[in-house]
Amino acid sequence: MLALLREKLVEVLAAVAPLVGVVCALLLVLVDGSGVVIAQFLIGSLLVIVGMVLLFVGLDIGVLPMGRFIGAELPKQGSIALIIGVAFAMGFATTIAEPDVLVLAQQVDTASSGSIREHLVLYVIALGVAIFVAFAMARIIFGFSVLTMLAVAYASVIVLSFFTPFHFVALSYDAGSVTTGVLTAPVVIALAIGLSSVLAGRSAISDGFGILGFASIGPIIAVMIMGILLQ
Fold first, then answer.
1. Is position 160 within any domain?
2. Does 201 map to a domain?
3. pTM of the model
4. Structural domains counted in the chain
5. pLDDT given at position 205
6. Distance of alpha carbon 194 from alpha carbon 209, whole angstroms
7. Alpha carbon distance 163, 158 (integer Å)
8. Rounded Cα distance, 148 and 144, in Å
9. Same domain, 216 and 156
């Protein structure tokens, strides 16, 4: 455990240190930040580092093994509907808890002065991810062409863009980007790799990956549809 903590600490420091250095330089040179502001930033950065280390350790020892185990065990139940249903539930649950999605939903509520409610945005995004994660798992089971599915999905996005209110178009693309965060990405990838690793004729590389790119289209379409319905 200590070795894993040290490894993750080094990784996090390497990722965060440039940001801390740049911000401190800006505070000291360009914007004339006070000592209090700099101290608050450094304390906040320290808390972020601690949180990221614990998060990544938790992912390594708990979340990723759980996803692979569930994905590998589901086919033993002999039910395609169960596999797709579990994929839907996992996609929905992880998106609801995704920090990036929560931040986006809160900002939309604030920026719209409450006219677009936080929970509405949150659940619509989660629903979009869940549906497309379920489709992606079905692709692994039945061997559908990922190129065809991506082409149809992106074509739908382009068509919907012409009918969606302009402010929802911008929101929809942001919704697609925030879903591939620290919770959704490892859970969905691990689930897909676990499933593809036990199915005959499936490759963990070609079938286990690409699922996030496909799943991120779901919230784009879902938010666009929401915008069309609300206009």
1. yes
2. yes
3. 0.81
4. 2
5. 66
6. 11
7. 10
8. 8
9. yes
The residue assigned the tokens 């779901």 is 218
State which amino acid sits at residue 3: A
* Residue entry with tokens 């040179």: 29
Assigned domain for 72 exists: no
The answer to whether position 21 is within a domain reads yes
> What are the pLDDT digits (tens) for 54-73?
888 888 888 788 877 887 88
Note the Cα 95 to chain centre separation in Å.
Answer: 6
The confidence score (pLDDT) of residue 143 equals 78
The answer to whether residues 111 and 215 belong to one domain is: yes
d(CA 27, CA 31): 5
The model's pLDDT over 9-43, given as tens digits with 9 standing for 90+, comes to 898 999 899 988 888 888 877 777 677 888 888 89
* CA–CA gap between residue 136 and residue 132 (Å, rounded): 6
Q: Which amino acid, residue 22?
A: V
Q: 127 and 135 in contact (C-beta within 8 Å)? A: no
Range of the domain at 214: 79-230
